[in-house]
Amino acid sequence: MQEPRAIAAFSSLANQTRLRMLKALVVAAPDGMTAGAVSEAVGASPSRASFHLAKLADTGLVSARRQAREIIYAIDFAAMGALVAFILQDCCSNHAAVRACCGLDEGQSPAKPGSQR
Amino acid sequence: MQEPRAIAAFSSLANQTRLRMLKALVVAAPDGMTAGAVSEAVGASPSRASFHLAKLADTGLVSARRQAREIIYAIDFAAMGALVAFILQDCCSNHAAVRACCGLDEGQSPAKPGSQR
DNA sequence: CTTTCATTTCAAGCTATCTTGAAATAAACT
DNA sequence: AGTTTATTTCAAGATAGCTTGAAATGAAAG
User: Which residue numbers in chain A have pLDDT < 50?
Assistant: First the structure.
């Protein structure tokens, strides 16, 4: 991931509505949600939801596909992973302190409670 | 890390000048750099550099301390790590696909070349 | 106590982003 | 063809963020 795309991705995440959309889409993964469902989930008008979903799709953090009358948005975990990799590698030069702070490098289990930090 | 702080942090990273400052500060870690040095490193006027450094400091991604006439900025790796943790845990619910995409969960060595991805 | 150096603060103008509601598109159904 | 449902696009106004250069602060040195 290059700098311009990373900046666009960070910009996408720097908004409450979009962050909440993303969280809803994580819960709904890998199936995704219709634009209307996302709109309801975050309490935004259809037009406003469309605006923010378009931004998330532009940056590649989510994908969009039409299914009959509905448009289904789904999170792209690979893109999210690439963004994390950008922070870790490009920004922080793989500095151990950064990796340590997010509970990595000490075991493989993704969600072991209490083991992070 | 809570949502508002994460949003502010993403906002900080969503800017070329600040991203480059951060990279310079990673290289200069853990000592840090004077505001003037950062200013030169990214090719920004003192006033512009001060504006962006203040933003980075506000969000806690960098720290500032006065040393005689100079002000020394240093990256806060813990804060960077907390932001990565926010993406991984709060945003992505520790989804394995995200962790996999950044070369984690397959070995502990932080910077082993060729082993990531 | 004035000068010098490093940095910040301020005010102005500019650009980008967000919100709102109305109108347009797209697909299915009658 | 006309209607309904789902979503996007558009235009307008509001808010936030960026850049610039000048003025102000803070700290050391003569």
Answer: 107-117
Q: How far apart are CA A93 and CA A115, in angstroms?
A: 24
- Of A67, A102, A70, give the one whose Cα is nearest residue A84: A102
Q: What is the distance between the alpha carbons of residues A40 and B18, in angstroms, rounded to a whole number?
A: 35
What is the Cα–Cα distance from B13 to B17, expressed in whole angstroms?
9
Compute the average pLDDT of residues B74-80.
96
User: A14: which chain B residues are within 8 Å (Cβ-Cβ)?
Assistant: 7-8, 10-11, 14
pLDDT value, residue A100: 82
Q: Give the model's pLDDT for residue B92.
A: 94
Q: Is the pLDDT confidence value at B108 over 60?
A: no
Nucleotides of D under 7 A from a protein CB: 5-10, 17-23, 26-28
* Cα distance between residue A99 and residue B82, in whole Å: 9
Residues from chain B that touch A114, judged by Cβ atoms under 8 A, are none
A30-50 residues labelled b (16+ CB within 10 A) or e (exposed): eebbebebbbebbebeeeebe
Q: What pLDDT digit, counting tens, does each position of A73-102 carry?
A: 999 999 999 999 999 999 999 998 888 866
Give the chain A residue whose CA is nearest to the CA of B111.
A94
CB A42 within 8 A of CB A49: yes
